[in-house]
């Protein structure tokens, strides 16, 4: 096969890039190792920035999101019984949208066939070749048959463990911060305990009250990396959430059987640069953020925005400088989002090595945020998403 852009990975980043390029008349093929059902089974983020919402609007694929998503004007930082409400709409004039990553993926996936976006699922043994040349290619096997795609560019949207990042190792630098805990999450078909998200810092640890809809809730607590899912039956997790979220939220918690339960380790990671030769990395293939700032999917979307911009400039205006500038543009926003996610993680979690001084600093920071419109505005601007 021959195409303009070979896209590795059919998660939201890869499908979003494929649709955007297709809308500009640029040919592309998307390769995915897993099946469609497996891709849709990944439970991930649920808070969308305006940049992500805007890309779905641009594609005309926002109808279900607008009908079923939950616009949010604010969120809360809790410390004991104190709530600090960050008024996103009042401080920035913008909202975020609560709409699960699975649903974004479903919308993009369902539209692919009708819009002529070719997605090849079940592609095994994916390998990238000649990425420094003007004619890179991707090889893979499907149903036991060895196949090859010749392209002008390759877009790696295949996550941290995919072959795209592996093809770049040795051509850049890795920056990493591994956190000493993970997030134990539970998804249940119960109404949320609050109509706005609550991030709680409790002496027993962090907790987050979130939701996917008016009838489906997503809750998290932080746990040591040594913990196992088997150690946390539903009843124990609901009890712990009630303690950490505080009496006001606990009074409104409706418990129920888990649909999904998992422990996700937290890390901050950046690989730079995000381009080598004719390979461009997008999303988790280039960076990972702790979920505290709700940036993972949204950073992938901004990468896709910059990648699409660069590829369109190349194919329509023969502008090689746009490709050369992709990494710097994307990384400028990546590092700001990494900073915000790191700082919010540091503020709302109790680290094992922390003592009385570090705790006093958290209290002082929350006191400052509670009384400073400037501090709240800074948080709000970052939470709704910095401009691209």
Tell me briefly what this model is.
The protein has 388 residues and is α+β, with helices and mostly antiparallel strands. 39% of the residues lie in helices and 29% in strands. A hairpin with a 2-residue loop joins strand 14 (197-202) and strand 15.
Would you give an account of this structure?
The protein starts with a strand and ends with a helix. The chain has a domain at 5-49 and 100-176 and 267-344: 3-Layer(bba) Sandwich (FAD/NAD(P)-binding domain). Helix 1 packs across helix 6 (101-112), helix 10 (296-317) packs antiparallel against helix 12 and helix 13 (356-371) crosses helix 14 (373-384). The chain is an alpha+beta fold. It has an 8-stranded mixed beta sheet with strand order 6-5-14-15-16-13-17-20. 39% of the residues lie in helices and 29% in strands. It is built from 14 helices and 20 strands.
Write the layout of secondary structure elements.
Elements: E1 5-8, H1 12-23, E2 28-32, H2 36-40, E3 47-48, H3 50-59, H4 63-68, E4 70-72, E5 74-79, E6 82-87, H5 88-92, E7 96-98, H6 101-112, E8 118-121, E9 124-129, E10 137-142, E11 145-150, E12 153-156, H7 163-168, E13 173-188, E14 197-202, E15 205-211, E16 217-224, H8 234-245, H9 247-250, E17 258-272, E18 275-276, E19 279-281, E20 287-288, H10 296-317, H11 320-324, H12 326-348, H13 356-371, H14 373-384
Parallel strand pairs: 1-2, 1-12, 2-8, 5-14, 12-19
Antiparallel strand pairs: 3-7, 4-7, 5-6, 9-10, 10-11, 13-16, 13-17, 14-15, 15-16, 17-20, 18-19
């Amino acid at each position: 096969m021959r195409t303009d852009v070979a896209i590795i990975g059919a998660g939201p980043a890869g499908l979003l890039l494929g649709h955007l390029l297709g809308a500009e008349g640029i040919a592309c093929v998307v390769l995915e190792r897993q099946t469609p059902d497996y891709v849709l089974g990944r439970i991930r983020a649920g808070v969308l920035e305006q940049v992500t919402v805007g890309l779905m609007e641009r594609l005309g694929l926002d109808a279900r999101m607008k009908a079923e998503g939950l616009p949010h004007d604010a969120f809360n930082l809790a410390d004991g019984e104190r709530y600090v409400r960050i008024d996103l709409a009042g401080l920035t004039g913008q909202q975020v949208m609560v709409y699960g990553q699975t649903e974004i993926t479903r919308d993009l996936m369902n539209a692919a066939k009708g819009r002529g976006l070719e997605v090849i699922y079940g592609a095994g043994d994916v390998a990238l070749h000649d990425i420094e040349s003007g004619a890179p290619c991707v090889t893979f096997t499907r149903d036991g048959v060895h196949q090859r795609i010749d392209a002008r560019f390759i877009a790696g949207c295949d996550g941290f463990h995919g072959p795209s990042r592996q093809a770049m190792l040795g051509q850049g630098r890795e920056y990493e911060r591994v956190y000493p805990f993970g997030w134990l999450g539970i998804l249940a078909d119960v109404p949320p305990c609050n109509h706005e998200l609550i991030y709680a810092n409790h002496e027993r640890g962090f907790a987050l009250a979130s939701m996917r809809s008016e009838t489906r809730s997503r809750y998290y607590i932080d746990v040591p990396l040594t913990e196992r899912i088997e150690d946390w039956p539903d009843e124990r997790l609901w009890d712990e959430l009630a303690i950490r979220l505080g009496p006001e939220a606990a009074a409104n918690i409706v418990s129920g059987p888990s649909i999904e339960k998992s422990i996700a380790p937290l890390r901050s990671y950046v690989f730079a640069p995000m381009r080598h030769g004719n390979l461009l990395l997008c999303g988790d293939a280039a960076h990972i953020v702790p979920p505290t700032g709700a940036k993972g999917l949204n950073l992938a979307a901004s990468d896709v925005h910059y990648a699409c911009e660069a590829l369109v400039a190349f194919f329509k205006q023969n502008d090689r400088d746009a490709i050369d500038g992709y990494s710097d543009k994307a990384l400028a926003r990546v590092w700001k989002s990494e900073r915000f996610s790191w700082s919010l993680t540091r503020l709302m979690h109790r680290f094992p090595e922390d003592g009385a001084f570090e705790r006093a600093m958290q209290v002082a920071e929350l006191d400052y945020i509670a009384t400073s419109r400037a501090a709240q505005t800074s948080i709000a601007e970052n939470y709704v998403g910095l401009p691209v």
